[in-house]
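Narrative summary of target 7.
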Amino acid sequence: MSLKRHIPNTLTSLNLLSGCFAIYFAFLQQFDFVAYAVFMAAIFDFFDGFSARLFKVSSPIGKELDSLADMVTFGVAPAMTVFNFLRNFQSENTFQTLPWLVFTPFLIAVFSGLRLAKFNIDTRQSTSFIGVPTPANALFWVSLPLIKYFPTENLLIKNTFEFLLQPNVILVNTLLFSYILVAELPLFALKFKSFGFKGNEVKFVFLITCGILLAWMQLLAIPFIIILYILISIIIHLFNKKENEI
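Modeled conformation, tokenized:
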């Protein structure tokens, strides 16, 4: 029992360590290693909570450590990634006219902190999320620079990402994603009380779609998956709202 109680905090610490590596690689502009570090952190983040529930060893210090680790890995790391990516475009007119705009990605860290603080005291988020979870937001941002260099012969995908990687588009999306981190927007969580299809239809369809997109597009699929997750959640929210009004 004494060993089991240390497993969740060890995994959380590995999450934090991965986040530190991600920040280091972001300043080196080695964006592929940034993405891999954040991917690993997301795995550690999933299994720390899973192991705590499995071994029934959750603790107040574990909860605090988890939030601090998430702040570094899913808040600061993506902010530093986008900031260092935008530095490559400082010679463009947008940044020549308004040079301070290059610091806009720091909002990702600020609103991630607000999101995590809100999540810790919001009792409504036990089975679903309100606002985009910080890991999903982080995965979206660290994937964009990576797939810029990802080889593909699919011109549709390539042209789409060339659009998403435009500095002005990144700045607008930074503001948009910062807002939806803390917005009163219900999003479904991939938490299964049972593994039957009934009651889990949306989750299974989403996971199958993710598998197809990953098989087809590989790493290029990740930003699309995050956007798809948000859009499906919005559609479900609007449908439930309409049903309640009838």
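Residues 4-240 form a domain with the Four Helix Bundle (Hemerythrin (Met), subunit A) fold (CATH 1.20.120).
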